[in-house]
């Protein structure tokens, strides 16, 4: 292949990845969820690359992941949050074990990301911190520090784990 053809292919691939038309996967397992990531991200107005970055940070694309806090599945959803989201979405007969189902988990997780995005006026640092630490905690940090930018707020007020989480997701997402 000629050098100009290789450069053109690299430019086209970069465009397709950055536009969300295809996803660059960090693991072979991640490829298995591409269609679900695309479907539910778009349905909930979330950049598919952000969904991928959250899944990467939360579970490393392991659908059977369980955190020490009890969060379950790909997007590490707490069972109580999962029940609330399932009820809101009209999912009947929801069981905690449903959070291990990739489609259910991504459906609920992207819906929740969309809710948090709207709650925090589209500020990704704030809604990602809320995904990790909970929206009540992020509101508390905001009330205690009303004159501070969101990036500084996360650096100053957030739990160390939340700071690291927001940085990791933002970096993986390319922001």
Task: Describe this structure in a few short sentences.
The chain is mainly alpha-helical and 175 residues long.
Could you name the key traits of this structure?
175 residues, mainly alpha, Lysozyme, 2 domains, globular, disordered N terminus
CATH class of the largest domain: Mainly Alpha
Largest sheet: none
Which H/E pattern describes the elements? HHHHHHHHHH
Structural class determined from secondary elements: mainly alpha
Q: Stretches where pLDDT falls below 50 for ≥5 residues? A: 2-27
Could you explain how this protein is built, in words?
The chain is an all-alpha fold and 175 residues long. The protein folds into 2 domains: 27-115, Lysozyme (Orthogonal Bundle); 120-175, no CATH class. It contains 10 helices and no strands. α3 packs parallel to α6 (102-119) and α7 packs across α10.
List the helices and strands and how they pair.
Blueprint: H1 3-18, H2 28-31, H3 34-43, H4 48-59, H5 79-88, H6 102-119, H7 124-133, H8 135-144, H9 150-157, H10 160-173
Helix pairs in contact: 3-6, 4-10, 6-7, 7-8, 7-10
């Amino acid at each position: 292949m000629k050098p100009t053809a290789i450069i053109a292919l690299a430019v086209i691939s970069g465009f397709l990845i950055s536009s969300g038309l295809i996803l660059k996967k960090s693991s072979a397992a991640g490829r298995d969820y591409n269609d679900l990531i695309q479907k539910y991200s778009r349905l909930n107005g979330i950049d598919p690359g952000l969904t991928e970055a959250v899944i990467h940070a939360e579970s490393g694309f392991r659908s059977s992941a369980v955190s020490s806090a009890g969060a379950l599945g790909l997007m590490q959803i707490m069972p109580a949050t999962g029940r609330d989201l399932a009820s809101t979405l009209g999912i009947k007969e929801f069981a905690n074990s449903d959070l291990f189902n990739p489609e259910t988990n991504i459906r609920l997780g992207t819906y929740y990301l969309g809710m948090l995005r709207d709650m925090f006026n589209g500020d990704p640092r704030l809604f990602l911190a809320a995904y990790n630490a909970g929206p009540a905690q992020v509101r508390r940090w905001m009330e205690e520090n009303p004159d501070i930018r969101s990036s500084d707020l996360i650096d100053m007020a957030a739990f160390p784990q939340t700071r690291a989480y927001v940085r990791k997701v933002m970096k993986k997402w390319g922001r």
